[in-house]
Amino acid sequence: MMAGDVTWEIIGTTSWSRTFTGKAEVLSQLLAPLARNFEGPNTVSADRFVAENDIVVVEGRNHSTTKRGKPYANRYSWSFRFREGKVVEVVEYCDTQLIVDVLDPLEMP
């Protein structure tokens, strides 16, 4: 559901905090490295949706466990902007200290 020119911004000052541009970059430099941290699938649930025009805000929770056995129970608020049925922008707000404490640092490509 991502447009080719999607941007995904993670707020904060962690090694994961930056804007990823383009579907290929989001998949290879954000989602794939994230998945490598977990023992099993990256499991996320969506708890609340608020929509207006082309924006949908979703509150969610992560239910994953890292390969080191630490729970990654992050909570999120994602703001999605859509164009022609595809996601063109994601802004992610979450517990950035949990990212620092539990995930492996994300290396710059």
CATH architecture: Roll
Low-confidence stretches: none
- CATH class annotation: Alpha Beta
Beta-strand residue fraction: over 45%
What's the N-to-C terminus distance? 25 Å
Please work out how many helical segments DSSP would assign. 2
Number of strands: 8
What does the main sheet amount to?
6 strands, mixed
Find the CATH topology. Answer: Nuclear Transport Factor 2, Chain: A
Name the average pLDDT.
96
Helix fraction?
10-25%
Order of helices and strands: EEHEEEEEEH
Oligomeric state of this protein: single chain
Tell me the Rg in angstroms. Answer: 14 Å
Strand order of the largest sheet: 2-1-8-7-4-3
Determine the structural class based on helices, strands and strand pairing.
alpha+beta
Description:
The two termini are 25 Å apart. It contains 2 helices and 8 strands. With 109 residues, it is α+β, with helices and mostly antiparallel strands. Strands 2-1-8-7-4-3 form a 6-stranded mixed β-sheet. Strands 5-6 form a two-stranded antiparallel sheet. It has one domain: Nuclear Transport Factor 2, Chain: A (Roll).
Features:
two-stranded antiparallel ribbon, 109 residues, six-stranded mixed sheet, Nuclear Transport Factor 2, Chain: A, globular, 2 helices, single chain, alpha+beta
